[in-house]
Prior knowledge:
This protein has helices spanning 22-33, 43-69, 76-88, 107-117, 135-152, 168-182, 198-204, 229-244, 269-275, 296-312, 328-347; strands at 7-13, 96-100, 123-128, 157-160, 188-194, 251-256, 283-287, 317-320. Strand 7 (283-287), helix 10 and strand 8 (317-320) form a beta-alpha-beta unit. It has a four-stranded parallel beta sheet with strand order 2-1-3-4, with helices on both faces. It has a four-stranded parallel beta sheet with strand order 6-5-7-8, sandwiched between helices. 42% of the residues are buried. By secondary structure, it is of the alpha/beta class. Ligand L6N33NVT binds next to helix 2, helix 5 and helix 10. Its EC number is 4.98.1.1. One of its GO terms (molecular function) is metal ion binding. Belongs to the ferrochelatase family. This is Ferrochelatase.
Amino acid sequence: MQQDKKRGIILMNLGSPDSTQVKDVRKYLRQFLMDERVIDIPFLSRALLINCIIVPFRAPKSAHAYQTIWTDEGSPLIVLTNQLQAALQPHFNMPVEVAMRYGNPTPEAAYESLLKQVPGLEEVILFPLYPHYAMSSYETAVRYMEEVHRKKGYKFKLTTIPPFYNDEQYIHALAESIKPYTEQPFDKIIFSYHGVPERHIYKGDITGKHCLKVADCCHVPSAAHPFCYRHQTFTTTELVAKELGLPAEKVEQTFQSRLGRDPWLQPYTAARLEQLPKEGVKRLLVVCPAFISDCLETLEEIAIGGKAIFLNAGGESYETIPCLNISPLWVNAVVKLIEKEEEIVKAV
Ligand SMILES: C=CC1=C(C)c2cc3[nH]c(cc4nc(cc5[nH]c(cc1n2)c(C)c5CCC(=O)O)C(CCC(=O)O)=C4C)c(C)c3C=C
Ligand SMILES: [Fe+2]
Ligand SMILES: [Fe+2]
């Protein structure tokens, strides 16, 4: 890529605790769940709920879950994001850094590292590693980076890569990662996305009258779609299924990782894993496209917990398809997405 400006890139992911010790998991959960875009209730109620109920009960359980997936190098999410950074660096003549929304490395550290490496830094390209727009993932990552940028008084420009849920190269990389699994005999493939509360979908609807209100809302054109997580996840599933030529009856979309009692997007993955064997589905594939890097929610919740649910309910075979992680087609897609954004900026 031509370097006519002093630039740097930041890849941003969600983040993990510093270790599997309960104290570190507690600290991480507190920072994560105190985010008003994740638990969107008034500050005092949120602080009470998180500090008195959710964190005390959840931290030991989450710590145990992290222990089942932790590697010698640390959290899979962090290790894989660092590996993506290393795979991307040779494609750019500007530094590529990593920042996490929660925990380490912080956005401040990533910005400061770029400033050290590029004297007179003019622009930072922010690449949130989320294919879909959700208030609790993409939006909070971008707003937080903007807030730090403003508070620090940085002079360089911040350019953000938009959600890429329907990008041709991303869809191709995802489809190719699934293909070897669908070439073997299977009864069904589940596209399991991280869930969000329905309330977040209503809140994100800029028209105020479309999402979850109009029949088949996600397939009816609307100005709400650029901010609608549900619409964007359906689009990803449908484009991948089309590219792979999967018959409709073999494809299903579900939502995982529900927290609390409010209604979240449905159907819930765990409930479907329990029901599917009774409907005659014995050989199941599961892919989790909301996650770019394998993490607690794919390696523990889906690959370990989900498998146990399905097999105990009478399923016979269950395979979790890895996330894109550092697949060469995905690395190529990231390079193209960044180049595309540069062309748009230049043309304006
Ligand atoms: C209200 C709670 C949560 C919302 C909303 C939410 C949305 C959301 N999350 C991701 C991506 C990830 N979440 C991960 C872990 C995780 N998520 C929640 C809660 C909400 N997420 C919790 C409490 C946790 C921590 C672990 C646990 O106790 O279960 C992870 C994995 C992190 C890791 O270290 O591996 C990811 C990634 C998205 C994309 C999203 C909205 C679309
Ligand atoms: Fe989450
Ligand atoms: Fe919608």
